[in-house]
Amino acid sequence: MTSVLVSGASVAGPTTASWLARAGHDVTVVERADSLRDEGQNIDVRGAAREVLRRMGLEEAALAHGTGEQGTVLLGEGGRELARFPASTDDTTGPTAELEILRGRLGQLLFEHTQDDVAYRFGDQIAALDQDPDGVDVTFLSGKEERYDLVVLADGVNSRSRDLVLPDAPRRYLGMVIAYLTIPRIDDDTDWWRWYVAGQGRGVNLRPDDTGTQRAMLNLMTDVRGIDVLDRDAQVTLLRRAFAGAGWQTDRILAELDDAPMYLEDLSQIHLDRWSVGRVVLTGDAAWCATPVSGIGTTLALSGAYTLAACLAAHDDHRAAFADYDARMRPFVEKGQSLPPGTPGLANPQTDLGRKVLGTALKLAASPVAKKLGTALGRFGNPPADEYELPAWP
Ligand SMILES: Cc1cc2nc3c(=O)[nH]c(=O)nc-3n(C[C@H](O)[C@H](O)[C@H](O)COP(=O)(O)OP(=O)(O)OC[C@H]3O[C@@H](n4cnc5c(N)ncnc54)[C@H](O)[C@@H]3O)c2cc1C
């Protein structure tokens, strides 16, 4: 039996832990937050990742906890409808996937599925890693010191533990900030994802959930970096200024900014040419964040976590396992990270002309002809989730 420390208890961490425990390893998950985090909004589980949930016996539960989103409707000036994309009836296509679930809900399902087989430790994190050919000495922020055979870093795009083994990971900022809020639902709300193209690089979104509230997103194209690390008051002031007069339902969302649960991120991709250093290996967003605009981040996390565990189960030597994992996942990750040209600026245009061009493009993208041709427009919101075959469990 090998002892494995997994850092991060969101999607990639518990999934890796589950499969490693199944292979007979002794697994501990350390999570920086004091308890399971329930923030976040609607995420898609597609293609290979649906299969991972299926193999874990969790697909039905995940579908039962879906957000009920019926599809995506894009709105232009004055809230006028530009295009409509009904939810998929399969597990790969369209901006609204068949399996849409709140991130916190998926995290909870994965946690409950694993908590009897895996030791969870909340409110702590890795402070130092010191490895030799036989193992990894881990010092935690709490002062605890332990030795493990392997360490898996699954602690997200801003992973600090990644810096301990691969400092200055190449990062590509997309020039967009998203604020996610949970706001009260009103009678006029629908079960569609309504995406208002507000101009001046702004997008205002409302999406249904399965908890009786609405999930709002404020998208802002900006060259200013560091907004994500400002304090909440400063973020609220900035968002109020940036979205003043944007129209449609913006004022309703701005009115909730002081009190609503909020999570704000500055979108960036991680591009590493290796995902392991000795006995330490990365997975999920920590390894290859593709960002929410890719529509495939959670799919990559679930598929990657399973693949890593399957490769470790298939090889006696961790080096061979990590090489196999890299070879299998890299083409899929590269496809997932490769965004259509102009993303995300084209979907959040600055000028009136940009809004008009987007309106025309969306009408085309929503047409059956464009979909059949599989043009770049028809691929709107349709990431390559089915272009990966999971390894068989050895
Ligand atoms: C709070 C939150 C809200 C999100 N909301 C959305 C959303 O609305 N839409 C969307 O598309 N994607 C969202 N995401 C991102 C989405 O979950 C991921 O893109 C995807 O599911 C991959 O998951 P992951 O497990 O690799 O990373 P993440 O989901 O980012 O999880 C990383 C986990 O590691 C923990 N962690 C961070 N640093 C450390 C550390 N040093 N030590 C130990 N633990 C650490 C974090 O608290 C978190 O639980 C959100 C992520 C988080 C953390």
Explain what this protein looks like in three dimensions.
With 394 residues, the chain is of the alpha/beta class. The protein folds into 2 domains: 3-65 and 102-170 and 271-337, FAD/NAD(P)-binding domain (3-Layer(bba) Sandwich), CATH 3.50.50.60; 172-268, D-Amino Acid Oxidase, Chain A, domain 2 (2-Layer Sandwich), CATH 3.30.9. The protein is built from 12 helices and 18 strands. The strands form 4 sheets. The chain has a 7-stranded mixed sheet, sandwiched between helices. Strands 7-2-1-11-18-17 form a 6-stranded mixed sheet. Strand 1 (3-7), helix 1 (12-22) and strand 2 form a beta-alpha-beta unit. The longest helix has 20 residues, at 318-337. It is globular and about 65 Å long.
Bound molecules: flavin-adenine dinucleotide
Task: List how many beta strands DSSP finds.
Answer: 18
Which spans of ≥5 residues are poorly predicted at pLDDT below 50? 373-379
Q: Which structural class should the secondary elements be placed in? A: alpha/beta
Q: CATH homologous superfamily of the largest domain - what is it? A: FAD/NAD(P)-binding domain
- What is the overall shape? globular
The count of helical stretches stands at: 12
Number of structural units classed as domains: 2
Main sheet attributes: strand count, strand direction, barrel closure: 7 strands, mixed
Question: Roughly what percent helix?
Answer: 25-40%
> Rounded to an integer, what's the Rg over CA atoms?
21 Å
> Class of the largest domain in CATH?
Alpha Beta
What fraction of the residues are assigned to beta strands by DSSP? 25-35%
Distance between the termini: 16 Å
CATH topology of the largest domain: FAD/NAD(P)-binding domain
- The largest beta-sheet arranges its strands as 5-4-13-14-15-12-16
What CATH architecture of the largest domain do you see? 3-Layer(bba) Sandwich
Q: Give the overall pLDDT as a whole number.
A: 92
Write the H/E string, N to C.
Answer: EHEEHHEEEHEEEEEHEEEEHHEEEHHHHH
